[in-house]
Amino acid sequence: MGKKIDLSSKPNNEFNQKKHNNRLSSPSLPSKDTEEDSNEELSKKEQMQKQVEETGKAVAKEIAKKVAIAHGVPSVIANSKVVDKILDKGLDKAIDKTKKAIKIAKIISIVFAILNILSIVMAIMPILIIIIIIIMFMGNEYNENNNQVAGGGYYSPRCNEITVIFVDKNNNYAVTNSATYSLDDYVAGVIAADEVGGFNNLEIYKTFAIAARTFGLKHADDNCSIEGGQAFKDITSRSTSNHKLIYQAVEETKNEVLLSSSNELYDVHYDAFCSIDKDDNYYTIQQKNQKIPVDWVENHTGIKALWKQGTCAENHGMGMSQYGSLYLAETQGYTYKDIIDYYFKDEDVRISSKSFITSIAGLDIKETKNVSYKINEPLTKFLESHGSSLEQYNDFIKSSVLTAGVGTREGVVTAAVSMINYLYDNFDAKMPYYWGGKHKGIGISKKFGEYRPSKPSRSGKIYYHISFDCSGFVQWAIINGGFNDPGTGTSNFNSKFFANSCLEKDSNCLGQPGDLINSPDGHVVLIVAVDEASGKYMVAESTGAGVIMQQRNIHSGGNTTRVLFMDDYYQNEVNTNYAV
Question: pTM to 2 decimals?
Answer without folding.
Answer: 0.48
